[in-house]
Amino acid sequence: MAQTALARCDDRTDALRETIAELLAMEEPRRRYAGMMSGLDIRYPLGDGHPLLGRRMPDLDLDTQDGPARVFTLLNGARPLLLNRGEPGAVECVGWEDRVRLVDVRHEGPWELPVIGPVAAPAAVLIRPDGHVAWVGEGSRDGLTDALTTWCGAPGGP
Question: pLDDT per residue over 25-49, tens digit each?
Fold first, then answer.
């Protein structure tokens, strides 16, 4: 709607367009506006906690046991993805193995999220097939079973 308003032709809108152009010459407003225009600012209300919860997962370069991979490449099977940055076996998806891909990964440093910037990398994340984070593990499995059941059905069944 705001973009449509800026398309009008009058002196006030011309002045507003000039102000917006000045703002978009700066990095932070440009990043925020691009995130809004592309939908990368969407955050589903999946509860409180890590800032990544409910947001689009960044397409990070990861190290896996099979070599380097990007997050969205790991999502190619249109199945939920459980990424474990902790010790192998720190998180499991027993009962959901047929529906959830579990990958042990390494990635150093913070994760850069569109619109909000860098955040501390969690120990594990459950990513829905649409790329949004359904669960964040910060050193525990609390809530993982509920998230798997919500997004993938009961364990051992469809």
Answer: 888 777 777 777 777 778 888 888 8
In this structure, what are the phi and psi dihedrals at residue 144, rounded to the nearest 5 degrees? -65, -45
Query: By residue range, what is the domain housing residue 15?
Result: 2-38
Within 8 A by CB and 6+ apart from 92, the residues are 102
Is this structure's pTM higher than 0.85? no
- The residue behind tokens 């593990």 is 137
Give phi and psi for 157, each to the nearest 5: -145, 175
Q: Are residues 7 and 67 in the same domain?
A: no
Q: Is the pLDDT of residue 19 over 60?
A: yes
d(CA 63, CA 70): 9
Residue written as tokens 């925020």?
A: 32
Q: What is the bridge-based pairing of β-strands 81-84 and 117-119?
A: unpaired
Question: For the chain, how many structural domains are there in total?
Answer: 2
